[in-house]
Design goal:
Organism: Nostoc commune NIES-4072
Bound molecules: S-adenosylmethionine
Helix content: 40-55%
Number of helices: 12
CATH superfamily: Vaccinia Virus protein VP39
CATH topology: Rossmann fold
Radius of gyration: 18 Å
Order of helices and strands: HHHHEHEHEEHEHHHEHHE
Oligomer: single chain
InterPro entries: Ppm1/Ppm2/Tcmp, SAM-dependent_MTases_sf
GO molecular function: methyltransferase activity
Keywords: Methyltransferase, Transferase
CATH architecture: 3-Layer(aba) Sandwich
Distance between the termini: 40 Å
Protein name: Tetracenomycin C synthesis protein homolog
Number of domains: 1
Number of strands: 7
Strand order of the largest sheet: 3-2-1-4-5-7-6
Strand content: 5-15%
Structural class: alpha/beta
């Protein structure tokens, strides 16, 4: 059994269950299976209203970011992947069905041990899928736990979705420093939709009062405000990543609007989703000066 120390970030773990329950209203492979396991095994003790709250825009956001990241991943020929804050994402399960891919899922100890147990119920053996306890903000870095699993001299793809949005500016800087170290050693790219501006979040809440309720639930659970912890404008987010030593290529989430299954499943107005996604991008970050 993994060590189960209490971590100041543990309260954020519950949001992984909320997101996973939202993902069941999509056609993302394994999303329904994972959500069902969570429900049948009573893995999350959200109170009744929290359990039943759902926001159509949250589901659209979650599906869009997952599929937009996949689209960006497909542009790189990188076969070793380190996913931060994996939560209950099914990407590792899916991508590791290709035996040429080394996929490392990571999260806080309590979350990653739960994830590993759930995945073992869905697939018997996946020798190229690994689970590591990594606090992405830790200094010294815990990313080095992945070194024995990575091939030296080959680039690494680092992924994360829905992590930085919960972190303070200082904590985001710690994650950036840890990512920089790995990219310096291996080369590669960091793909994330997590540099968001609060303006777009506030506008989406005006379009969907359920989203407002759900984000408030998240804030109550984590003690962290998505609005306070993110950037006033997208330009401020860009400025931040430049200052952290990254070069950025942006990929609009509108690129996946036609792939969103939840629009039909939940009967969502595509125009509202289009408005929301117009302000959302996946960032592909590489080191500004790889050799320095
Ligand atoms: C909103 S959930 C997103 C989970 C998953 N990426 C997804 O999109 O479904 C936030 C995740 O961040 C993880 N987390 C929180 N603080 C962390 C930290 N310091 N290091 C690594 N993971 C962390 C939580 O355990 C949780 O799984």
């Amino acid at each position: 059994m993994n060590k189960q120390q209490t971590n100041e970030f543990d309260k954020i773990i519950l949001t992984a269950f909320m997101v996973s329950l939202a993902r069941q209203f999509t056609d993302i492979p394994y999303a329904k299976e994972l959500a069902q396991l969570i429900e049948t095994q009573g893995l999350v003790k959200l109170s009744q209203p929290q359990n039943q709250d759902k926001s159509v825009l949250l589901t659209a956001r979650i599906e869009a970011r997952y599929k937009a990241i996949n689209q960006v991943i497909a542009q790189y020929q990188i076969t070793q992947v380190l996913e931060l804050a994996s939560g209950l994402l099914p990407r590792g399960l899916l991508m590791s069905s290709n035996p040429n891919i080394t996929f490392i899922e990571s999260d806080l100890p309590k979350m990653i041990s739960c994830k590993q147990q759930l995945i073992q119920q869905l697939v018997v053996e996946r020798p190229n899928l690994y689970f590591l306890e990594i606090d992405a903000t830790n200094h010294p870095s815990e990313f080095w736990k992945s070194t024995p699993l990575l091939k030296a001299g080959q680039p690494v793809m680092i992924l994360c979705e829905g992590l930085l949005t919960h972190l303070t500016l200082l904590e985001k800087q710690l994650v950036c420093a840890n990512v920089r170290e790995i990219l310096h050693s291996y080369g590669g790219v960091w793909i994330t939709p997590d540099f968001i501006d609060t303006g777009s979040l506030v506008r989406s809440q005006q379009d969907d009062s359920d989203l407002q309720k759900l984000l408030q639930t998240g804030t109550n659970l984590t003690g962290r405000s998505l609005v306070n912890n993110n950037f006033g404008t997208l330009d401020q987010a860009r400025q931040f990543v430049y200052e952290q030593g990254f070069r950025v290529t942006e990929h609009s989430m509108l690129n996946v609007i036609d792939e969103l299954s939840c629009l039909e499943i939940l009967g969502i107005d595509p125009e509202v989703v289009r408005r929301m996604l117009a302000a959302q991008s996946v960032f592909a970050l590489t080191l500004d000066s790889p050799s320095s």
